[in-house]
Structure to design on (249 residues):
């Protein structure tokens, strides 16, 4: 579904992404891990069109989308939910998702609060059920809990009908119970949707519990990739990132 070929990105003299080459199978659930400053968010920026690569290619379902704008990348089928959700505080959960559905289906490049047609409302209701926010559907987003705000951001991304969904630290800022609730919801969403899902995460327990494959970045380069068991036992990964954490995972 998604292939990265020799992706390179520099910011001034800082070599942030170093010839990253890897691929993500259709319908797979993959985590990207690495120390702070490893280049994880920059890699998401390159995939999503927020940042153009200096060289290399991003190939989605056989199409080279390298250097396209964020809007063009969304239209091709990649959506992203961010570490910090950016929502319209006066919109209810339902209205937020309906507006995203309308914008996606009618080709608007801006998020517009216009009246949805019946098909739009039905689609929005399906997304509400998928992310588990039916009980707060008529609640303004400004007063949602932190976890529900993150779920709403994921719901808005789903409204764009992506082939690939990028989740940037979906459990960031959550307590232990809320974090595991989010993990269960993400895993259920992935199973129900069949999406190719890629997420950045720092919690090793979460990574090893739900990932099919793990990619490890270090100083902008792909250090290792494999199953959770393979990554857990990889000497290079233990030295560069896991350290003693592997003994408790």
């Amino acid at each position: 579904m998604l292939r990265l070929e020799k992706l390179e990105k520099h910011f001034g003299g800082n070599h942030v992404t170093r010839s990253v080459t890897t691929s993500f199978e259709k319908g797979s659930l993959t985590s990207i891990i690495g120390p702070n400053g490893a280049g994880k968010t920059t890699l998401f920026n390159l995939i999503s069109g927020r940042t153009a690569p200096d060289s290399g290619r991003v190939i989605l379902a056989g199409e080279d989308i390298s250097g396209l704008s964020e809007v063009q990348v969304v239209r091709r089928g990649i959506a992203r939910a961010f570490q910090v959700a950016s929502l319209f505080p006066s919109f209810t959960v339902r209205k937020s998702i309906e507006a995203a559905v309308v914008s996606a289906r009618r080709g608007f490049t801006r998020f517009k609060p216009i009246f949805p047609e019946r098909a739009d409302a039905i689609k929005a209701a399906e997304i509400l059920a998928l992310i588990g926010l039916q009980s707060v559907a008529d609640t303004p987003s400004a007063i949602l809990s932190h976890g529900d705000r993150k779920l709403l951001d994921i719901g808005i991304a789903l409204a764009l009908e992506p082939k690939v969904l990028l989740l940037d630290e979906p459990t960031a800022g959550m307590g232990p119970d809320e974090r595991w609730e989010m993990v269960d919801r993400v895993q259920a969403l992935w199973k129900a949707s069949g999406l190719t899902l890629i997420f950045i995460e720092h919690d090793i327990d979460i990574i090893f519990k739900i990932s099919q494959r793990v990619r490890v970045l270090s100083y902008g380069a792909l250090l290792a990739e494999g199953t959770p068991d393979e990554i857990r036992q990889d000497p290079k990964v233990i030295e560069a990132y896991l350290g003693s954490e592997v003994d408790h995972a």
Q: What stands out?
A: The chain has two domains: 1-77+163-249, 86-161. The first strand starts at residue 2 and ends at 11. Strands lie at 2-11, 14-24, 29-33, 55-60, 63-64, 78-81, 164-168, 196-200, 213-218, 221-226. The CA atoms of residues 147 and 178 lie 7 Å apart.
